Amino acid sequence: MASHGFWSFGAENAGDNSNQSPNSPRAWCQAAAQKFTGGIGSKICALLNVGEAEKPADPIAKQTETETETETETCGCNKPCSCSKTGLGFSDLYSTDLLPATNGDMKTMNFLQEVVDILLAYIVESFDRSTKVIDFHYPNELLQTNNWELSDEPATLDEILISCRATLKYAIKTAHPRYFNQLSTGLDMVGLAADWLTSTANTNMFTYEVAPVFVLLEYVTLKKMREIIGWPDGRGDGIFSPGGAISNMYAMLLARFKMFPEVKEKGMSSVPRLAAFTSEHSHFSIKKGAAALGIGTDSVICIKVDERGKMIPSDLERRIMEAKQKGLVPFFVSATAGTTVCGAFDPLIAIADICKKHNVWMHVDGAWGGSLLMSRKHRWKLNGVERANSVTWNPHKMMSVPLQCSALLVREEGLMQNCNQMHACYLFQQDKHYDLSYDTGDKALQCGRHVDIFKLWLMWRAKGTIGFEAQIDKCLELSEYLYNKIKDREGYEMVFNGKPQHTNVCFWYLPPGIRYLEDKEEKKKRLHKVAPVIKARMMEYGTTMVSYQPQGDKVNFFRMVISNPAATFEDIDFLIEEIERLGQDL
């Protein structure tokens, strides 16, 4: 049976209403009112006001809703029982009335049910194209119209729920099909469920004894990711960290330790001046990591890129040899698989040859492009990644795993442990009764480490590798569709020629007012202001969001990226038309 999309949930219950589309929001809500327990469906529809303005309420449906509400008011157990519900008023309740308070179980259930209702309504709304991506307010407006201040006295649970609603009211709907602003977009339902479970478990990743299942899942998943990279039998090491910037810093830390292990105890004074290399278009985290590790940003040498943003291998080798002649010790090369702006993939095979020749650690920052390894159609863009010493891979980008989920994969097993371990005897006792190799916390820089693995693992179970592959392929197909739509369209100019390598599509929109200017400097000056104005109008109207930036000698241009599985060809068409509508008078 063909799927009718999100609203098809209500189709089977709408057959007796000839005036109502079985795939309409109203049909979905009527079905939800019957299928969800505890009156959740009715509450979602009430919060969304779905169908209320379209026609008078159906008396039968109204009766059903009244019965549901009456049932909900008399019982909170969602099963036959003789108990009575205490009511849904929270104006006289405080957090101290919830568990672990005595007799706090029903109050806790009622409170959390209200929170879940708020979240479910927000989720449904986020996928509705008729709603705004953003309800934009300037910072001073938000500060003045809402009370965000902290107080010595506790707020009631009613006020807490109001704060939850206000927070989501002004939140950016990153799941919205027309949100294209960042590399991390979309909202996966299984991933969301996993995140809820993770927060409920509320444990730490440092030892097997406090996170047995999560530690094992991290072991299994990291091994699978190493296999996909191409390391024999998935051997090696790895860790999930708080984002790609930290993963990249881990890689630099390991590269330094591998070459100069004494630096761990004696510091930078014990080693010669080091030199790291990365492309001009690499992520800023490479320099930030060098600063944090005491290597210094001046020791990060930026390598020239070609017209598509790829590192030029000959320039890399030239700069390595120059650094040696100046007395510096090259220790780290960071190649990029999917640059942030252009989506370029550095030539990994040629870079690997140079690193091997000069005995330099090769890192691949695949935070953005690493997920293309899941696609048989596109993984060739990372040919040579198996020769890297370390790889950063962010599933919270192209794989749409809820933030945050970033992995560092390392080819040499045991190196992370030797580099970072401190043997804290109050955590990592050596006489425990289980295999101590599963106490992974000592190889991390952090002590407290959030459980990021369960979201990825559960989504992988739900989708399978082929599901991720299809999702990634679709996003790249959409980016090619956008490119083909605008490359010869009047008013558009591509930042670089040729099909996009990733989902990044970089372009200028030239409004009619500047399209035919002959003065090149004046045209450039005015074009620089176009993208910021259109972006501001997007946010004011709340219709869509796309990023922009200058780069090098290029004035501000739009950088469209597609990682949202909810996006469609129609959304791409809408974006083009909206840019033209918002910029026609400039």
TrEMBL record:
Leader peptide range in chain numbering: none
GO molecular function: glutamate decarboxylase activity; pyridoxal phosphate binding
The keyword Cell membrane is assigned to this record: yes
Functional summary from the UniProt entry: Catalyzes the production of GABA.
Alphabetical list of InterPro entries matching this protein: PyrdxlP-dep_de-COase, PyrdxlP-dep_Trfase, PyrdxlP-dep_Trfase_major, Pyridoxal-P_BS
PANTHER family assigned: GLUTAMATE DECARBOXYLASE 2, GLUTAMATE DECARBOXYLASE-RELATED
Keyword check for Lipoprotein: yes
UniProt keyword terms in alphabetical order: Cell membrane, Cell projection, Cytoplasm, Cytoplasmic vesicle, Decarboxylase, Golgi apparatus, Lipoprotein, Lyase, Membrane, Neurotransmitter biosynthesis, Palmitate, Phosphoprotein, Pyridoxal phosphate, Synapse
Primary location group: cytoplasm
Location of the protein in the cell: Cytoplasm, Cytosol; Cytoplasmic vesicle; Golgi apparatus membrane; Presynaptic cell membrane
Organism the protein comes from: Megalops atlanticus
Cofactor names: pyridoxal 5'-phosphate
Modified residues (N6-(pyridoxal phosphate)lysine): K397
The protein's name in its UniProt record: Glutamate decarboxylase 2
Top-level EC class as recorded in UniProt: lyase
Example of a GO cellular component annotation carried by this entry: presynaptic membrane
